[in-house]
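Researcher: Quick sanity check before group meeting.
Model: Go ahead. Protein one:
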Amino acid sequence: MRTAPALALAALLALAGCSASGATAESADGGEAGYAVEEGTAADEATGGAGGGAEAPAADGVDLTASPRQVVTEGSVTLTVEDPRGAARDVALVAERVGGHVEERVEQAGSGEDALDASASVVVRVPAAEVTGVLERLEELGEVVSVRMSTTDVTGQAQDLDARVRGLQISIGRLEAMLAEARTTSDLVSAEQTLTDRQVELERLQSQRASLADRVEMSTLRVELWTAEAAPETAPERTGFLGGLQSGWDALLTTLGAALLVLGVLLPWALFAGVVLLAALALRSRMRRSATT
């Protein structure tokens, strides 16, 4: 009889119908229940079946409990130089010498013979370990107007993606084994559909993980280059009471500007609606007079 093998295979599909935590539950029979069971099983296998004190290896053999901090570094530098277009080429060379590359480059030729309003903007990707050295070299190209750097710790996000990828890999391995043992067409179709969904989700997570790793490995720097005459003025940042007062005033002006913009958009429509309303009232009054006479 085929009833027993079919029931066994259905039970296995329910157990395998999962991915790592956070994946979308399937709509197939037993999808939500199977997802929950498999998630716990995958997590147990990822931790070697040990208790809470055991170390958990992440995907690709990375130890989640001992992995170093992963930080995304981004920043911007504004310089005043004599020749912004020439300085843009120098910025590209600085990045290339440390193993980086130019991601975006915009040059604006100045007007007039002296081209005093020329400017350039260069976005470079450089190895994170070389950021300090790159900043020092950039400072040699001209006068520094401003430097802004920010760091974001993405260690937890990376570990979460690693664990979810590992859970999906375990689930896919089980589904592939079930496909080889499928005996009926319905079992085969069900397993193939679940496997396809898991593979799509795995590729999506792997793409996210690769993008995150690239942002950690390669820092992004935006370099703005201006002539001294065309450089935008940088107002000093205010803190404390004066800073709050300035922020409130700016917010008020922004709100009033937005309100005036909305009023300007609605005013023509209001005038049109008023004309239509007056015409309708006049027509109604005329019809009433005609009815009374």
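Researcher: Fine. The other one?
Model: Protein two, sequence then structure:
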Amino acid sequence: MVSQYDVRYEYKKGAEWVHESTRLPATSSALAVRRVADELQRRFGDLSNLNIYAEEFISAPAEEELV
């Protein structure tokens, strides 16, 4: 089953850490992390200064309208 995963990552750009995140569909958190890591490797090449993790996005149920 495909779920939505929030993937947060940080990488070193010069002397500073850059923090970013994205949400994407995947069948597991490991696959979501792999997809983002692959894209970052294409962009930057070196992933030695990368921290990355994912968690399943669970949307809150719609609030019932009060009458």
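Researcher: One line on it for the slide.
Model: The first strand starts at residue 3 and ends at 13.
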